[in-house]
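Handout, page 2. Input:
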Amino acid sequence: MYCRIIICMLYYSINYFLKIIKKGGQFVLIMKNLKVIKKDGKTEDFHHYKIVNSIINAGATSEEAEKIAENIEGWVKSNAQNNTINTSEIRTKVIEQLKNVNPDATQSYENYKK
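Output:
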């Protein structure tokens, strides 16, 4: 009985905080309550895979990108105010961490402007 209650509580907790979407043939988790304020002022859900993709596109390996994105996600969770954070703050943190891992990719990442 207690096990069933714990499983239900765990399911609803995960369902409250996470959303699963299909992106490019893969399923990814999105933090439901964590929002990102874009440069134009629009707000959207935080997407871990966007950080990974942008770092890979800059020239880093998928392993480097995944490790940095995990670090950034943890940093965002602890530094977001009212569950929101600006993309400029994320960008600064990515550059800071990428410099230590792949300086060439850092240069490419810094030069890219949306």
